[in-house]
Specification:
Two copies of one chain form a homodimer. A two-stranded antiparallel sheet of chain A has the order 1-2. Chain A has one domain: Winged helix-like DNA-binding domain superfamily/Winged helix DNA-binding domain (Arc Repressor Mutant, subunit A, Orthogonal Bundle), CATH 1.10.10. Chain A is elongated. Chain A contains six helices and two strands. The interface between A and B is large, with 57 and 53 residues. The first copy, chain A, binds a DNA duplex (30 and 30 nucleotides) through helix 3.
Chain lengths: 150, 150
DNA sequence: ACAAACCCTACTTTTTTTATAGGTTTTATA
DNA sequence: TATAAAACCTATAAAAAAAGTAGGGTTTGT
């Protein structure tokens, strides 16, 4: 498929940051008509620390998912269609580059320290398969799937 | 280069513990005929700390994947057929939950603090789908798939 | 007896995640 | 135009988890 398949192969549990991001996006999706929504409203609804959520929304804004309005009467709002926000994009943004397994990347390749010869590494080959299959799932589920089920 | 690097290093991957476990299992699978294998042999082969690997092998033994023999001439050996060791079992043992959220985990379930009503949570429902599809992949790939590719 | 090898528990260090703090800037409106 | 509300920004502290270390205990072949 494409280079973007490299993005995923196997993910552990989502961080709170990412989970909160999904909650916030869902909230914003549900309150689209209201124009903009306060950080505090989302924080209160889900019992999240205002300041923590603030950082998350800022990241989502910088990444182009949200717009905002400063000052009195301001707030955040979605600037993308929910169907154009795949789970993979959000997870990637918030969970960030952490534990690496560069040995499954074709585009940014780096050998594992413990592998003498990657070409002969069965783990590498199987994990590439898993990556391809998992990516297929997460690229195709979007915020709109979440909203449909609320 | 910044954005590029981030693209390919964004997701939580397998912990070293789990990765080493797979390497050890693969090594044991390849050296089945020899009866038993020393921790040190595996550690040396992959440049892993002996003591760290020792803990991992002990866990694998307690979980019923390996047998061992103490004393001179001892070592570890597989007591399950590679085809009966799915990736999911090893990942769960060493890394914990496969689900992306605690509220959709089969083996490590925990209610979300921030969810007033899980039954109405769209994120929960979508993540259950993701879990089922991901599990389907990880339960059907086994150690024998890795060995076949070595 | 002795050395080899696994067994067990606890601890330390390092890294990552989570959360907080303390301001600055922008904007509506009284 | 003063004020308060709200987003914006950066740094740092606290907590948790992962990675690695230490040191002895137990079993076993020779």
């Amino acid at each position: 498929m494409g280079w973007f398949q490299e993005l995923f192969y196997f993910c552990k549990m989502l961080s709170k940051k990412t989970k909160y991001a999904f909650h916030a996006l869902t909230y914003l999706g549900k309150h689209k008509e209201e124009g903009s929504v306060l950080i505090q409203d989302i924080a209160t609804e889900h019992g999240i620390s205002h300041k923590f959520l603030e950082n998350i929304l800022l990241e989502l804004k910088k990444a182009g998912f949200l717009g905002s309005k400063k000052g009195k009467g301001g707030g955040y709002y979605l600037i993308k269609e929910p169907k154009d926000i795949p789970l993979s994009r959000i997870i990637r943004l918030l969970d960030g580059p952490i534990a690496l397994l560069p040995c499954v990347s074709l585009n940014y390749y780096e050998a594992c320290e413990e592998c003498k010869d990657q070409v002969k590494c069965g783990l590498n080959k199987v994990m590439i398969q898993v990556r391809d299959e998992t990516l297929n799932i997460l690229e195709n589920k979007t915020l709109s799937d979440i909203l449909d089920k609320e």
